Amino acid sequence: SDRGFMAPQPISSERFSEFLKWLGGRIARVPIVMAVHARNDTISSFDDTDAIIRAVRRQQHALEVEDNCAKLIELPEQFANSDKSRSKKRKTAGHFYFNHALLDDTSEELLWSDLRSALHRCKRTRTELKAPTTPRSEE
Known about the structure:
By secondary structure, this protein is mainly alpha-helical. It has helices at about 10-25, 45-60, 90, 100-105, 105-120, and strands spanning about 30-40, 70-75. It has a two-stranded parallel ribbon with strand order 1-2. The N and C termini lie far apart (about 40 Å).
């Protein structure tokens, strides 16, 4: 994305755009896509994650599967380094919040309650969510 990593090689932005087109079309039919990210993360780009979610939403709209959920959950900045670490670099990187987002009690309000609500609203049945067949599985 133009707001993300901004790699010095112009080709990398083109590749990311190609990736977004490819990814958005494949993930748009997944009923629920959620990403948890901290804006102050210095290791992976918040803006790139936002671009991925926006690409999925655009494809959902184009495919008319707008009952699907694609959501970026922004982690409050003060929790971006909440995982315990002994490293000084890790304490300032804004990237270490796995436990806060997924495992600790804090994850209930941040992620799991939203996920349960999305699952409840999801209109698809299990039979509609068949995995695509591959040439190998058709044999």
